[in-house]
Specification:
498 residues; mainly alpha; Neurolysin, domain 3; 3% strand; EC 3.4.17.19; hydrolase; Peptidase_M32_Taq
Length: 498
């Protein structure tokens, strides 16, 4: 066997472990009885240690050295070596006992978060979250020393390879300067319109689920390789060829769950479209979290909040819930789906205010990792940031700093990818619609084939063959340009649009 063949087989085994972790983690979040927390934590910790052991196996370094001199390798194989080298470099920075301790701390903190969130009790979560944060600082320091990065940038690098906080600071500072005045402008425009009440519930959960499943099918979800369930916090997970997405239902507002389903379906379509020949290899994985978020936000925000999609979906919404009257007319439904309002919850936020939620979390997690802020001060800092960026103050921690699972689950450095993803989504959708003029008419008739085909060709099928900037430049003709995102917001929300 050649060195490359050895590496490929080795990382196929690592992929199998990752798939097992993915299904066990999904089950923990969706199905597992509370009494199984301890046993499940032990199982996940062991599997993660075994996975870490495979990735950091001393033979990997030798195989890499020999494979990188093999002139017979093709483009995909060389890209796979690059990705393996990146993964190996990062993971060898971590001792196995740190990986195991982190897995245990995260499992305990995630379960405690569910109870703390329900009871708006940050104090009860604080000791467990302190331990997760302590370990994340350790991980950031260890990886940062190996990569020559700050601890925060080392954590960010796990989700956004090559991403740096200095670039994000500039992008986010620009948005933070733009959004408050633009939000005021949009709210003023909305206030001048004739008032139309939204559709009135209740909207039975089973009817919401049926509508969600119907729309998943419309946009292209493969139910032979995935499923929809319910969880406290919507997510997309699972394993290769077994993509699990979740949502949560509110019987007084069906739009939140439906758009949540479409958002997670965007993630799932990316997972289902990755290159089949390389699914078990690092080069076959999704490029970065900003690209992943671009796929969910492109589907939810760009495509499924468009006038074209609402013209198709509104009659089906009326049928699903037996609706009648002005609130169910297409234009009224579109207004409802593009309403801008200041709110407390990130996952329920509209396109205009959503980036402010992300900017807040990004600034807070950077300060916490750097040790510039004590974790005990998080609720107060959160409230102050919400007031400054969004003009609202959450009444309790359930609607404040306890709303997201990311920090309890060890996802530090993840949050900025949401808004980077929104910018990327706007740029990709603009390029797609320019390249194929049948995309918007297709959406209007419930045919997502042209859009999904373009995404399969220009994003999904590449896996991690290209770096993020190269992928975006190849697909759109230019690197990430925040101006495209701002122009999209101006077009959709900045005019009277009567």
């Amino acid at each position: 066997m050649t060195a490359y063949t050895e590496l490929s087989a080795h990382f196929s085994r690592a992929s199998a472990l990752s798939n097992a972790v993915g299904i066990l983690q999904w089950d923990s979040d969706v199905m597992m009885p509370k009494g199984a927390v301890g046993t499940r934590a032990e199982s996940l910790a062991l599997l993660r240690v075994l996975h870490h052991g495979l990735v950091t196996d001393p033979r990997v370094g030798d195989w890499l050295s020999r494979a990188e001199t093999d002139n017979g390798l093709g483009e995909w194989e060389r890209a796979n070596l690059r990705e393996i080298h990146r993964l190996w470099t990062v993971q060898t920075a971590l001792p196995s006992d740190l990986v195991e301790a982190t897995s245990r701390a995260v499992s305990a903190c995630e379960m405690a978060w569910r109870k703390a969130r329900a009871e708006a009790d940050f104090a009860s979560l604080l000791p467990l979250l302190e331990e997760v944060l302590r370990l994340q600082r350790e991980i950031g320091a260890a990886k940062g020393e190996k990569l020559g990065l700050s601890p925060y940038d080392a954590l960010l690098n796990d989700y956004e390879p090559g991403g740096r906080s200095a670039r994000i600071d500039a992008l986010f500072d620009d948005l933070a300067a733009f959004l408050p005045a633009f939000t005021d402008k949009v709210l003023d425009i909305q206030a001048r319109r004739p008032k139309t009440a939204p559709p009135e519930g209740p909207f039975p959960v089973e009817a919401q689920r049926a509508l969600g499943l119907e729309m998943m099918k419309v946009v292209g979800f493969d139910f032979e390789r995935g499923r929809l369930d319910v969880s406290t916090h919507p997510f997309c997970g699972g394993a290769d060829d077994d993509v699990r997405i979740t949502t949560r239902y509110n019987e007084s507002d069906f739009s939140s769950a439906l758009m949540g389903v479409l958002h997670e379906t965007g993630h799932a379509l990316y997972e289902q479209g990755r290159p089949a020949a390389y699914l078990s290899q690092p080069v076959g994985q999704a490029r970065s979290m900003s690209v992943h978020e671009s796929q969910s936000l492109l589907m939810e925000m760009q495509a499924c909040r468009s006038r074209e999609f609402i013209a198709f979906a509104a009659p089906r919404m009326r049928t699903a819930f037996g609706g009648a009257g002005p609130a169910w007319e297409t234009d009224a439904v579109w207004r409802h789906y593009t309403t801008v309002k200041r709110g407390f919850i990130r996952v329920d936020a509209d396109e205009v205010t959503y980036p402010a939620h992300v900017i807040l979390r990004y600034r807070l997690e950077k300060a916490l990792i750097a040790g510039d802020m004590a974790l005990a001060d998080l609720p107060g800092a959160w409230a102050e940031g919400m007031k400054s960026l969004l003009g609202v103050v959450p009444p309790d921690d359930r609607l404040g700093c306890l709303q997201d699972i990311h920090w309890p689950s060890g996802g530090w450095g993840y949050f900025p990818t949401y808004t980077l993803g929104a910018m990327t989504a706007a740029q990709l959708f603009d390029a797609a619609c320019t390249a194929d003029t049948d995309i918007l008419p297709g959406i209007a008739r419930g045919d997502f084939g042209p859009l999904l085909g373009w995404l399969r060709t220009h994003v999904h099928a590449h896996g991690s063959r290209l770096e993020t900037d190269a992928l975006l430049t190849q697909a759109t003709g230019r690197p990430l340009d925040a101006g495209v995102f701002k122009a999209h917001l101006e077009r959709r929300y900045g005019g009277d649009q009567e």
